[in-house]
Q: What sequence folds into this?
């Protein structure tokens, strides 16, 4: 058979949802025509014409390497006879193409099966599924029916589709999920680090939904969902293609291994603990107490765009409320917390967003407790308690703020002075066997609040900041006359609409919870006292030093 006859008889075997057809490979003179071939596939299987016009159809070889129009003819002539057709924007492939050189070959072609999953295309018509070879002859194709195979595949279609949708929903709802999709779309695979991230997300959701020992059927569904959602991750040499994620017979695979690690850690922890499980309160995940609708997926991405570009602060605040749960997942992701101000930059120019998020966590009553209880009750108690402190220059300077006869031109106002006096009542302590130098209360104050004279360069100041935890920046002519307040997080100034130092500190405290930031080590006792005694957050759960408990008892005791 000469080459021209070979060209004239070249056929493509195309399978779509269990229906197989022979399709003549269109040719232009002695070359195979790539675009006409895609057009023929689109017509025969009643796919959306827009898919071809907009360049959404993708042809790849069996290794997953994309085939472009300029090499299509060369590959066929070089002996490459197996291809797959899918959609560029979706990581799935419903159509398998196998080129054969003679239309007289057997009408039943076994070949490898293809996982049927949903595509954004019109379904094959009923007439296509029931057509006889004679009825389809005008389309230069032959329908090959395999009723037994179709019935088996039909039974699995729903399971595959549900598994794919479940995995997609889990990943889409997680802030790191979008990075997984982006990497897969770009590289048609996942790096080891990204694969581990995906497995961690899925196991966390699995154990939360199904408990510490999820059923085998659940683990299998997750593995099936992964390779159905990301078909290039399938193993072509294994029985089902997903055994490297979970093999139900051997109980091995990435999902099984990670699950065993989680089970072992939780088991060991439950046996080691002889004391209550005390929380690091600011970094504890908390869901919204409010019933406002939360947005995820595409709606969330649209809201993020509105938040970023809207000039209407009321609209920004409304969208920020609707993305609270998404933001909480973001700040509690150890790999992503540093990006929260990049994803939600309006914290940097719309005052009040920190207070809004804190109120969504704890409610308005707890949110307002510091402003209600500190000036009217705790402030005077702290001042009285400090009268018995050993005399030193720093304590005397702070106490001078409450003496009308004392000169206090360079000191803080009464509210900030009282807060710094509390720091002297709860000084930094050595952290067990850690080899860190103990610092004084006066030195620790620099971790809590800093002063910048009005007119000085804020940019220059921030460039020199080395603090890792949030602190309050006060800008004014004098310490006791502050014009502007900022909460500094990651060297970025978040504006506060506070008019007083006590209100500004209230916002500083709340920032730890909103951004899931642990307390500065030297201020742990100070902040824990504020947390439990004033805000009444996690009473009985928070880890408190004996000194914190003693001072709380002393100040709350009626005398």
A:
């Amino acid at each position: 058979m000469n080459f021209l006859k070979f060209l004239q008889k070249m056929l493509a075997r195309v399978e779509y949802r269990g229906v197989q057809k022979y399709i003549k490979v269109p040719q232009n003179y002695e070359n195979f025509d790539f675009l006409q071939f895609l057009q023929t596939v689109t017509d025969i299987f009643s796919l959306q014409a827009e898919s071809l016009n907009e360049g959404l159809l993708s042809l790849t070889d069996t290794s997953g390497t994309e085939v472009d129009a300029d090499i299509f003819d060369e590959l066929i002539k070089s002996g490459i006879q197996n291809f797959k057709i899918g959609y560029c924007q979706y990581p799935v492939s419903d159509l398998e193409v196998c080129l054969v050189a003679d239309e007289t070959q057997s009408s039943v072609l076994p070949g490898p099966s293809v996982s049927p999953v949903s595509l954004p295309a019109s379904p094959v018509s009923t007439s296509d599924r029931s057509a006889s070879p004679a009825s389809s002859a005008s389309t230069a194709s032959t329908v090959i029916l395999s009723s037994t195979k179709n019935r088996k595949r039909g039974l699995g279609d729903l399971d595959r589709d549900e598994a794919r949708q479940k995995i997609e929903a889990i990943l889409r709802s997680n802030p790191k999920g979008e990075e997984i999709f982006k990497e897969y779309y770009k590289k048609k695979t996942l790096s080891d680090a990204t694969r581990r991230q995906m497995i961690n997300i899925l196991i966390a959701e699995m154990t939360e939904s199904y408990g510490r020992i999820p059923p085998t059927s659940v683990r299998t569904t997750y593995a099936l969902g992964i390779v159905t959602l990301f078909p290039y991750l399938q193993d072509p040499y294994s029985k089902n293609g997903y055994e490297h994620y979970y093999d139900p017979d051997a109980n091995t695979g990435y999902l099984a291994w990670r699950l065993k690690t989680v089970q072992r850690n939780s088991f060991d922890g439950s046996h080691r603990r002889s004391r209550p499980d005390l929380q690091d309160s600011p970094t504890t995940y908390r869901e919204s107490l409010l019933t406002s609708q939360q947005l995820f997926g595409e709606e969330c991405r649209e809201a993020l765009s509105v938040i970023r570009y809207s000039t209407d602060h009321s609209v920004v605040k409304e969208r920020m409320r609707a993305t609270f749960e998404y933001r909480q997942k973001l700040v509690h992701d150890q790999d992503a917390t540093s990006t929260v101000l990049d994803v939600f930059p309006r914290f940097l120019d719309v005052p009040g967003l920190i207070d809004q998020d804190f109120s969504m966590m704890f409610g308005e009553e707890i949110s307002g407790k510091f402003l209600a209880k500190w000036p009217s009750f705790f402030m005077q108690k702290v001042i009285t308690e400090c009268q018995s402190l050993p005399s030193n220059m720093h304590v005397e300077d702070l106490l001078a703020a409450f003496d009308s006869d004392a000169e206090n031109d360079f000191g803080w106002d009464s509210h900030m002075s009282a807060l710094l006096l509390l720091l002297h009542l709860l000084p930094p302590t050595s952290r067990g066997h850690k080899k860190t130098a103990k610092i004084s209360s006066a030195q620790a104050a620099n971790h809590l609040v800093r002063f910048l004279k009005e007119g000085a360069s804020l940019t220059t100041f921030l460039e020199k900041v080395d603090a890792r935890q949030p602190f309050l920046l006060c800008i004014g002519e004098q310490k006791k006359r502050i014009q502007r307040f900022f909460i500094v997080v990651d060297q970025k100034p978040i504006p506060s609409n506070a008019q007083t130092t006590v209100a500004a500190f209230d916002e500083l405290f709340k920032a730890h919870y909103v951004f899931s930031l642990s307390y500065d080590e030297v201020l742990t006792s100070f902040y824990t006292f504020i947390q439990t005694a004033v805000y009444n957050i996690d009473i009985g759960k928070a880890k408190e030093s004996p000194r914190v408990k003693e001072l709380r008892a002393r100040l709350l005791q009626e005398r």
